[in-house]
Structure formats: structure tokens, C-alpha cells
Design brief:
Elements lengths: L4 H31 L7 E3 L5 H6 L4 E5 L4 E9 L2 E11 L2 E8 H9 L6 E8 L1 H15 L10 E7 L5 H30 L16 H14 L1 E5 L2 E4 L2 E5 L4 E5 L5 E9 L7 E9 L5 E6 L2 H12 L4 H47 L1
Length: 357
């Protein structure tokens, strides 16, 4: 079975970008479901007379034509800030109330608006509608009861329309769609042209990345010495592949090669040995990789050097023997301590029996 460096780049790219694609697709799907909620939906209302029906059917964000608006003289305040102004119009013998934003009200009053169509949210406000209707009756010099049935409690409220939230949701969906599209296009291009793969940046210090990708393909196909887990040794290169990067070291550049061992604990379990391979030179090369199997690191060194690091193995064996000796000493001391305690206990028990007799 042949192993190509190009295939290695493609595999790592797909494994890494698959996570991003799944996250972006999941977020896009979630926002798509949110956009279907009533609060983010806007429907077109052909006739404002159906305000009650739209409200009860929970289609409350509407785009509707509201022409012939007349100022009521009442404003809407948020704290001390004037946020809107109430208008009304009479249609089909019914007074329809409209609350416009201050900016929309100013444009309407100045005649600067080109359209009488507004995006509003239908709200039900008995108190405000009743108050404005009673003030209208006073202005006409009649009793409010005489206008009973003229007013409606459903108000076309532009200030309550969730314009900002809808825009944020739409912009977020557009951004996520663009990111997902860019990521998919990048994967396609990086698969077709490996030099575009960001993990190929490890070859930049050697010169032309495309040439070295082809060279590594040939090495892995015809001069492969070892392929164990994520480690590859060819005649001229050491390659160690991780999910987020690929390290490539030219063996001829290595001047110093060493192997170290350290103990690490995993939770409360027994410690494990971790074997670290370090390669460097007097210039800018410094590389290290960790292995959990000493056999693998020995094989890697053997195929890189043609011989094992005997000095290390003797030292490692010496350290293990020393640790075993220290452990045996500790256990012997513990056994001696327990023997002394047992002897003292037996002596005290003998003394108690002698006292009894």
C-alpha cells in the first residue's frame, strides 16, 4: 500500500475542516429555525381593516400601506426621550391608530417620504386607544360614548417592529453562509492544488512547496522505511502528522538527536512513561515529538541513524533499576516498621498477662 504526502495533506485537511463545516452548518440550521419564529416573520397586509384577524392569528409583524395619516398631537416617550408620535386615519368609519418612529413622523410631516408603506408590529392597547378616542371626542365637542365603536384597540406600532433583530439575524445568516461557502471552496481548491493547503506551510523553509510535495510523494512511494501510527520515515525525511499540523524534517539537516523519558500521571492512576525525541542543529532547526511506546521511538531512531541510541537504553535501564531499588528500600523500611510495631504489641500483651497472674 502506497502512502503519498499529497494524500496525507488531504486527509488532515478534511478531518480538520469537517469540524468547521459541521459547526457552521449547525449554526446556519439553528438560525434558519429561529427565522421561522413569528417574531422574525413579516407578512404583507393588503388591507389594514384585517388588523384584528392578523393579530389573533399571530401574524403581527406586517408590511401595510397607511396613507392619509393625521397627527393626534400625542407622543410616545421612552424615559425622558421622545421615541414616537401617534397618528390616526378614518377608514370604513373606524379610527385606525398608528405609532410612528420620530424619524418617520418628521419625514411624513415634511413630505419627504416616497411611500406610505410601513413595517409595523400589531399591538393591542385598550388604554391608549381609549384615551386618544376620548380626547378626539373632546376636540369635536361630543361625548366619548357617542364615538363608541369608532375606535379600534389594535395599533400599528412602528417602534415595536423588531427591525434591528431581524437585520442582525439576516446578516448573521449571510455571514455564516459566506463562511461556509468560502470553507467549501477552500477545501476543493486545496484538494486540487496541495500547495494551497495551510499544512503545507511546513515545507516553506525548504523552498518551493510544490516541488517538495512531489518529492515527498516519491519518497513515500519508493523510499519508505517506516510507517507507524502517525510517524513516517523515508530515506531523507522524518514526517510526523497531527490533526492540526504536519512536521517535516530533512534528516540530513539533523546534527543532534536525543531521546528522553519522563513520567506523567493520568489522574489518580499509575504514572506512564513518555518518550521524547528531539532533533536539532546549530541553525534554526528544533523539533520534538512524544511517543508512548518505546519500541516505536527506537524504530524511528534506528531507521533515521541506522543504529539505536545504546547510551540512552543503558541509561534508561539504569534509571529503572535505581527506581526499583529505591522502591524496594521503601518497602523494606515499611516492613521493618510493621515488624517493630508487632513486636511492641506482643510485648505489651505479654506484660498484661504477667500482671494478671
Amino acid at each position: 500500500m502506497q502512502h503519498g504526502f499529497r494524500r496525507l495533506l488531504q486527509k488532515n485537511l478534511l478531518l480538520l475542516t469537517l469540524q468547521g463545516v459541521l459547526v457552521l452548518a449547525g449554526l446556519l440550521l439553528l438560525l434558519g429555525q429561529v427565522s421561522r419564529l413569528e417574531h422574525f416573520q413579516t407578512v404583507e397586509m393588503e388591507d389594514s381593516s384585517y388588523a384584528k384577524e392578523y393579530f389573533l392569528s399571530e401574524q403581527r409583524n406586517v408590511e401595510v400601506r397607511l396613507d392619509g395619516l393625521i397627527a393626534t398631537g400625542f407622543s410616545y416617550f421612552v424615559g425622558d426621550q421622545e421615541a414616537g408620535e401617534y397618528f390616526y386615519r378614518i377608514k370604513n368609519n373606524v379610527m385606525e391608530l398608528v405609532l410612528l418612529k420620530k424619524s418617520s413622523a418628521n419625514r411624513l410631516r415634511a413630505g419627504e417620504t416616497d411611500s406610505d408603506t410601513y413595517k409595523v408590529r400589531l399591538i393591542k392597547d385598550d388604554v391608549t386607544a381609549g384615551y386618544i378616542l376620548s380626547e378626539y371626542a373632546d376636540a369635536l365637542g361630543i361625548r366619548a360614548e357617542e364615538l363608541s365603536g369608532l375606535g379600534t384597540v389594535y395599533i400599528f406600532d412602528e417602534t415595536a417592529y423588531p427591525l434591528v433583530r431581524i437585520r442582525i439575524l439576516r446578516i448573521s445568516m449571510i455571514v455564516l453562509s459566506l463562511m461556509l461557502g468560502i470553507l467549501v471552496v477552500y477545501v476543493i481548491l486545496a484538494t486540487a492544488f496541495p500547495v494551497l493547503n495551510f499544512e503545507a506551510g511546513c515545507l516553506k523553509r525548504y523552498g518551493n512547496k510544490g516541488r517538495y510535495i512531489r518529492k515527498l510523494d516519491r519518497e513515500m512511494a519508493k523510499k519508505l522505511k517506516l510507517h507507524q501510527d502517525n510517524v513516517i520515515v523515508t530515506e531523507n525525511f522524518l514526517i510526523v502528522s497531527y490533526l492540526t499540523k504536519i512536521d517535516v524534517v530533512r534528516i540530513d539537516d539533523i546534527r543532534y538527536l536525543s531521546k528522553h523519558v519522563e513520567k506523567r500521571r493520568r489522574g489518580v492512576g499509575r504514572p506512564i512513561y513518555v518518550y521524547r525525541l528531539t532533533a536539532s542543529n546549530a541553525d534554526d532547526l528544533y523539533f520534538e515529538a512524544d511517543f508512548f511506546d518505546e519500541g516505536i521511538i527506537n524504530d524511528v531512531i534506528y531507521y533515521m541513524r541506522g543504529e539505536p541510541l545504546l547510551e540512552y537504553e543503558e541509561l534508561s535501564e539504569q534509571e529503572r533499576l535505581q527506581e526499583e531499588a529505591e522502591l524496594e528500600t521503601v518497602m523494606a523500611e515499611e516492613r521493618n516498621r510493621e515488624a517493630v510495631l508487632d513486636a511492641e504489641k506482643e510485648l505489651y500483651e505479654q506484660f498484661d498477662r504477667d500482671e494478671l497472674y
